[in-house]
Amino acid sequence: MQTGQLAARSTVAPTADAAERAFLAEQRWERWRRVVLPLLGGAALLLVWWALVEVFQVKPFIAPAPQVVARTFYDKFGLLMTNLAPTALEAVGGFLLGNFAAIVTATVFVHCRSLEQAFFPVAVLINSIPVVAKAPILVLLLGNGLAPKIAIAGIICYFPTLVNMVRGLQAVSPQAMELMHVLSASRREVFFKLRVPTSLPFLFSALKIATSTATVGAIVGEWIGSQVGIGALIIQATYNFDSALLYATVLCGSAFSVLFFLVIRTIEQLVVRWDTGVTL
Amino acid sequence: MSPAPALQCEGVSVRFVSNRQSVTALEDVSLTVEAGSLLTVLGPSGCGKSTLLRVIADIVRPQAGAVRVLGASAEAARRSRQIGFVFQDATLLPWRNVIDNVRLPLEVGTRPALSAGAMGPEELLRLVGLAGWERALPHELSGGMRQRVAIARALLGGPRILLMDEPFGAVDEITRDRLNEELLRIWRETGTTIVFVTHSIYEAAFLGSSVLVLAANPGRVCEIVPIRLDEPRMLSVRESPEFMRQAAHLRAVLEMC
């Protein structure tokens, strides 16, 4: 076995250039595959969808064919955007408020153990309630309008970020704490120079989850007695049996959610430049 | 006039209490380290080697006994930055590049102003052989290189005492040999008093002006063995019969305890 490998290597050695070229070609092919295969997968799904609607003659109010959805998306683009604007505002506003509140709370928890021990279990408990169950309760509490939806999106972001941020701020290695002690660093210095940077990867994984939960929060908030927004449009389209508009609206909402996620991921890539998988 | 010893421990005892049992990590440890010497601390695992270093660095408070560092308390020595500490892991901050990691001591705590004679971060990186790596991030370095950065960081501000807790335990043997030789060079060039914890007999004998052999359960001083070898020590000295004899003696002392 080993002699075989050695022999193989000695025959390759004189043509190192060819080996390198082959390697680069393989890498290009691999990159290409990574783009093309998902596109093919998506196209296949659309094809199956189209075929099912055609073959079984599904009525348009039950499920629309993909080309009809695309057509509606194009024709009613103005309507979709008018309704996306408030939803986006609620989602982004809630995202900012909820996460800010979570970061502040986590900071307080890390500096006051008794508060953490009293309220952290409660936070974990509330966090375990599903979003769809929390939203109606909050609508009842907060009424109608733009502000309550921001509050819903914010509260829904709050708990996962709080849980992650507390973990992140505490994920400091004991040796790093000893190092700071030897350097006679103050609590404030330990917090800003050690705890905050350590927590950033944890924070960003929570923020990435929060992009979609904030969007879901805003939409679910709009389900109950709202006139505008993606959530309201979903309800209206459903009651009017306008399945094409329903699908186009859902598409619009998830496109926003994906865009929101990509923005946060880009910021993460700019901020967290170190390798988080290695202990140093 | 003889200068005050760099380090004095008298009757130091440390007990750790957990919910099941209490462990005596150190019992009645007394020792004196002369300024400018390099003491290696050798012993089986669990003999309190690391605890001894942490007592000197004022990380762990002893239940009994007194520690004098440069004639003052351990806390005063820590606050005035007379102590540098190198941990088992390099403990670099992964988001800071090499030079910013070395600079950390200037940004926190007592923030010593670099005196005219003291080496700056760039100079220290040259001293540990990492010139040109200033902008690299820790994960781009090998384990040995990371430990060199940690040594440069510990030397910033010119501490009089350098405490090293098995710093080369995680690097491969070839790198470890080179780092050992370089540590001796740094020791000669800076004149820093070094206390170096290891569980390798050869490392202890090669580096140490003398070797403190600790016994385990509870951790206590077994013997302090002076090592006499031709100076400056080169790696080749380890093949000499003289080195072999002293290493064999250390092994015998270890087994006796």
User: Average pLDDT across residues of chain B?
Assistant: 87
What is the beta-strand fraction of chain A? under 5%
The count of helical stretches of chain B stands at: 8
Instruction: State the low-pLDDT regions of chain A, or none.
Output: 1-12
**Helix/strand order of chain A, N-terminal first:** HHHHHHHHHHH
Runs of chain B in which pLDDT lies below 50 for 5 or more consecutive residues are: none
Short description:
Chain A is an all-alpha fold and 280 residues long. In chain A, 83% of the residues lie in helices and 0% in strands.
Describe the overall structure.
- The complex is a heterodimer of chains A (280) and B (257).
- Chain A is mainly alpha-helical and 280 residues long.
- Chain A has helices at 2-12, 16-55, 66-75, 77-111, 113-127, 131-142, 146-170, 174-182, 187-223, 230-239, 243-271.
- In chain A, helix 4 packs across helix 10 (230-239).
- Mean pLDDT of chain A is 88; it is low at 1-12.
- Chain B is an alpha/beta fold.
- In chain B, strands 6-7-8-3-9-10 form a 6-stranded mixed beta sheet, with helices on both faces. Chain B has a 4-stranded antiparallel beta sheet with strand order 2-1-4-5.
- In chain B, helix 3 (98-107) packs parallel to helix 5, helix 4 (121-127) packs across helix 5 and helix 7 crosses helix 8.
- The radius of gyration of chain B is 18 Å and the shape is globular.
- Chains A and B meet through helix 8 and helix 9 of A and strand 6 and helix 3 of B.
Supply the key terms.
heterodimer; A: mainly alpha; 0% strand; B: alpha/beta; four-stranded antiparallel β-sheet; 8 helices; globular
Q: Topology, pairings included?
A:
The complex is a heterodimer of chains A (280) and B (257).
Chain A: H1 2-12, H2 16-55, H3 66-75, H4 77-111, H5 113-127, H6 131-142, H7 146-170, H8 174-182, H9 187-223, H10 230-239, H11 243-271
Chain B: E1 7-17, E2 22-33, E3 38-42, H1 49-56, E4 64-69, E5 72-73, H2 74-79, E6 83-86, H3 98-107, H4 121-127, H5 143-155, E7 161-165, H6 173-190, E8 193-198, H7 201-207, E9 210-215, E10 220-226, H8 241-256
Parallel strand pairs in B: 3-8, 3-9, 6-7, 7-8
Antiparallel strand pairs in B: 1-2, 1-4, 4-5, 9-10
